[in-house]
Amino acid sequence: MLVKTFGAAVHGINATTITIEVSVGQGIRFLLVGLPDNAVKESHERIGAALSFNGYKLPRKQIIINMAPADIRKEGSAYDLPLAIGILAADEKIDPETLHQYVIMGELSLDGSLQPIKGVLPIAIKAREEGFKGFFLPKQNAREAAVVNNLDVYGVENMTEVIDFFNGQSSLKPTVVNTREEFFQNINQAEIDFSDVRGQESVKRALEVAAAGGHNIIMIGPPGAGKSMLAKRIPTILPPLTLHEALETTKIHSVAGNIGNNTSLISQRPFRSPHHTISDVALVGGGTFPQPGEISMAHNGVLFLDELPEFKRTVLEVMRQPLEDRKISISRARFAIDYPASFMLVASMNPCPCGYYNHPTRDCVCAPGIVSKYLSRISGPLLDRIDIHIEIVPVPFEKLSEMKPSESSEEVRKRVIRAREIQAQRFRHIDSVYCNAQMSSKLQREHASPDREGGELLKNAMQRLNLSARAYDRILKVARTIADLDNATNIASRHIAEAINYRNLDREGWTG
To answer: Using alpha carbons only, how large is the chain's radius of gyration in Å?
Structure first.
């Protein structure tokens, strides 16, 4: 007897429907074809043990299974359940009449219970697109899939529940999630706040400007000055995720297997902080079986690189293209995958190996030329993609012991949201541009031209401070954001002056 069940394969952040054809006839062979990897081939043993434990047996016949389309590689153990259901249906232990209406995925334990799987959300979206009635999957993943409407999502704990459902011996209640209600309920919940930070008002202002314009930022300061503490609070002042952004972010984390059990949509902007020993593949994605990297996991959020010069140079260089294109293309001999990577880069570093160059009270013990050598670990092209350079000094005792509450993240976020709304209106007719940091040269000439006084100030700064040519565009983009925060139509000299102060590393003589 020939029976078809349906599963899905995930490539990138999208799914492809897989038709599992099971034929049971005369003979004693077990053949599994259609480019299965080792994990899929090993399903034979797991299925046999699970069926035996639950009172069923593998048919003592010839079993031929084809996973179509046969030119797509099938990876992972999530095909255990559809293979088992297909075998039982082909052996006439399950009524196959309604099998074609459902997508089935799940990894089997030897007792027939189901283990959680990856990539549930893209599979559920594909199932709805192709008109399936429902989706059977492990109970731990049910809420994640239930985000998709117009699809019956059945979270099951054991394979017998699926068998009894198709045989009409029991009914299952679909998992229902009120996506919008849960999303908007959790959107503003945060455990940390800008009010926790004492002092550092100038740095907070720079972070506000960076958040308002989507600008990349690097903080330079001695150990203990608060660089990491400030960076971790940046997501709390960024505009809340939209429902579309939340869905896109959740898809990426679903593919990577980073969605917690019984979790639906990601409602907070991601904050990723990889260690400096990370490899280039782990950062941008890839591998034998490509997976999203840290830059994609930070999509719609923040990628924080602490102690930037300690990262391997090759690791930093592979970020250059994603920073411009806001996506990463991973190519292999037979396929290519695109992962989105639109993130805000936040970096921090000590000014020198000992950490105390330019410190107000402690002396730097580094030899002459060491500071320049340390900074040169960061290439010019990468530094060119960082709009704001801000120097941090230690907080004095008077500020640390001050009991007066600081400005909260909510208050800062309101100003950031207003500035982003101005930018959204400005770029409403332009695809893929939604903040000032993404302006091209043409858009910059149109929207970020200073007035006469501001132009003179910028000219003098370029000459007196020996600013590099690349600093010119960055200053104008940042000045445009400062003007937006000021609700000003035109860029004034005060906006230019503040933007110039955010280019510390471009000043000749800064490193001695």
So the answer is: 28
The residues pairing with 291 across neighbouring beta strands, listed in sequence order, are: 286
Write out pLDDT tens, residues 308-337.
999 999 999 999 889 888 899 888 777 788
Q: What is d(CA 460, CA 480) in angstroms, rounded to the nearest whole number?
A: 19
**430 Cβ neighbours under 8 A, 6+ residues apart:** 443
Q: Locate 479 and state its tokens.
A: 């000045």
Give the separation between CA 392 and CA 219, rounded to whole angstroms. Answer: 7
Has domain 2-166 been given CATH number 3.40.50.620? Answer: no
Q: Which ranges in the chain are annotated with CATH 3.30.230.10? A: 2-166
Which CATH architecture is the domain 186-435 placed in? 3-Layer(aba) Sandwich (3.40)
Burial of 408 (0-12, 13-18, 19+ CB in 10 A): middle
The answer to whether the beta carbons of residues 261 and 288 sit under 8 Å apart is no
Model pLDDT, residue 116: 94
DSSP SS3 for 48 = helix
The mean per-residue pLDDT over the stretch 370-380 comes to 86
User: In the chain, which residues fall in CATH 3.40.50.300?
Assistant: 186-435
Determine whether 446 is exposed, middle or buried from the number of CB atoms within 10 Å of its CB (0-12, 13-18, 19+): exposed
Region 406-412 average pLDDT:
88
134-138 β-sheet, strand order: 30-33, 62-68, 14-25, 2-11, 102-104, 134-138, 152-156
For residue 345, give the H/E element and its range: strand 344-349
**CB 322, CB 341: distance < 8 Å:** yes
- pLDDT tens by residue, 26-45: 888 899 999 999 999 999 99
CB atoms within 10 A of CB 165: 19
CA distance 266 to 263: 8
Look at the pTM and tell me if it is higher than 0.70: yes
pLDDT category at 88 given cuts 50, 70, 90 is very high
